[in-house]
Specification:
Subcellular location: Secreted
Protein name: GH18 domain-containing protein
InterPro entries: Chitinase_II/V-like_cat, Chitinase_insertion_sf, GH, Glyco_hydro18_cat, Glycosyl_Hydrlase_18, IDGF
CATH topology of the domain at 2-153 and 184-241 and 288-298 and 386-435: TIM Barrel
GO biological process, one term: chitin catabolic process
CATH class of the domain at 2-153 and 184-241 and 288-298 and 386-435: Alpha Beta
Radius of gyration: 21 Å
Largest sheet: 8 strands, parallel, barrel
Number of helices: 15
Strand order of the largest sheet: 1-2-4-5-6-7-9-16
CATH superfamily of the domain at 2-153 and 184-241 and 288-298 and 386-435: Glycosidases
GO molecular function: chitin binding; chitinase activity
CATH architecture of the domain at 2-153 and 184-241 and 288-298 and 386-435: Alpha-Beta Barrel
Structural class: alpha/beta
Oligomer: single chain
């Protein structure tokens, strides 16, 4: 087994080295440095990173933030990033993997102090924009990153219940267009300000031979904030976080597919909660397909079921009770990494397994269910991507001639091989499908 793994690894290293000149698809590997500080089996070390690198074309280190007073880029974990030299430890890997580009990401839902400062940055004018640009370029250069990723924390669409009664989806759309769901009345102004900032960043970074990428976070309305034709020439990549359309936190009373590839018809679902819709939105605005990467989550979202939720598990599941209990490794309510999900499947050591329901159409995704018991406890419903569905999405990216795929993130894949013995099964499945 070890020799097979080594052989596969060497082959992929050679393929990755070749892809710089052959134009092979991108494999964007997000790395949330929070994983380095987790404990036990969830702790992601430098050796794990090095094993993953044989599959990656880009690594995006998350996350930095901005100073709310000066609008300069700054570390939000100085102890790890600087005192423990984690920035430098990661970029030092470039010596052994020169074909990989390492970018530093700002935002990403990790910069939690005065979250409205990202909008305020846009409003603050040219002088503040210049401070942000210069500080970003300085930090990227100082720690030997190859560029900057903008994962800006912009206002999100308000969650809304769209299932159940007939016509409820139309009511939601009507509210949306009449203003009930407007989260930013100045979005058109902010779009123009963001366009100017991205253009200036692109010019400054290009002159310094640095990359600039954009990550569109889940439930950020692209049409409100991104003038796609205007900003695309300034960006090297656009990564669409096409998942978490529904989550237990945003939608505590009903569970549904969190990242379907195509629209799931019926039950008055909203038509834009799927990968294909989001991708087509950018393609229809003449953004080059080769600049677009679709995002796949290496984790699942888990709802707690009630006795009223029924026992079929078929989505849309009603009468859920918000996020399920935290997993032993990730310790986050409503979120389970791939290893945690896989270990909940039927196996000799699992007395209360979930029932796995596959998607033979490859359109919507897999889910797992365990109905609530007579005491209204132990019920759980999980929507997730597994290696098979991730492979299907990678195939979609190839068929659309997209830039590639972005995995969010390395630290939540089964990097220890706890489930089947295969380390990084999500990452490997995506990479294999991108190359064949």
């Amino acid at each position: 087994m070890n020799s097979l793994w080594l052989g596969l690894g060497l082959s992929l290293v050679l393929l990755a080295a070749i892809q710089n000149v052959s134009g092979a698809p991108n494999m964007i590997c997000y790395y949330d440095s929070k994983g380095f500080e987790r404990q036990g089996l969830a702790q992601f070390g430098l050796q794990d990173m090095e094993l993953a690198l044989q599959f990656c074309t880009h690594v995006i280190y998350g996350y930095t933030g901005i100073n709310p007073d000066t609008y300069e880029l700054q570390s939000i974990n100085k102890r790890l990033d600087m005192e423990q030299r984690h920035f430098s430890q990661i970029t030092a890997l470039k010596d052994r993997y020169p074909y990989i580009k390492f970018l530093l990401s700002v935002g990403g839902d990790r910069d939690l102090v005065q979250e409205d400062k990202y909008i305020k940055l846009l409003e603050a004018g040219r002088q503040a924009h210049t401070r942000f640009i210069e500080s970003s370029r300085d930090l990227v250069r100082r720690y030997n990153f190859d560029g900057l990723d903008l994962s800006l924390q912009l206002p999100r669409n308000k969650p809304r219940k769209v299932h159940g009664e007939v016509g409820s989806a139309w009511k939601s759309f009507k509210k949306f267009f009449t203003g009930d769901f407007i989260v930013d009345s100045e979005s058109e102004t902010h779009k123009g300000q963001l366009t100017g900032l991205i253009k200036d960043l692109g010019s400054a970074f290009s002159a310094s031979n640095l990359l600039l990428s954009l990550t569109v976070l889940p439930n950020v309305n692209s049409s409100w904030y991104f003038d796609a034709p205007a900003i695309a020439p300034s960006l090297d990549m656009i990564n669409l976080a096409t998942f978490d359309f529904l989550t237990p936190d945003r939608n505590p009373e009903e569970a549904d597919y969190t990242s379907p590839l195509y629209e799931a018809f019926g039950q008055n679902r909203l038509g834009h909660y799927n990968v294909n819709f989001q991708m087509e939105h950018w393609l229809l605005q003449r953004v080059p397909a080769q600049k677009l990467n679709i995002g796949i989550a290496s984790y699942g979202r888990a709802w707690k079921l009630s006795s009223e939720s029924g026992d079929t598990g078929m989505p849309v599941v009603q009468h859920t009770k918000g996020p399920a209990l935290a997993g032993l490794q990730t310790k986050t309510e409503g979120l389970l990494n791939w290893a945690e999900i896989c270990q909940m499947m039927p196996n000799p050591g699992n007395s209360k397994p979930v029932r796995r329901v596959l998607d033979p159409t490859k359109r919507y995704g897999s889910y797992a269910v365990r109905p609530a018991d007579s005491s209204d406890e132990n019920g759980i419903w999980i929507s997730y991507d597994d290696p098979d569905t991730a492979s299907s999405k990678a195939q979609y990216a190839r068929a659309k001639n997209l830039g590639g795929v972005a995995l969010f993130d390395l630290t939540l894949d089964d990097f220890r091989g706890q489930c089947t013995g295969d380390r990084f099964p999500m990452l490997r499945a995506i990479k294999y499908r991108l190359l064949v």
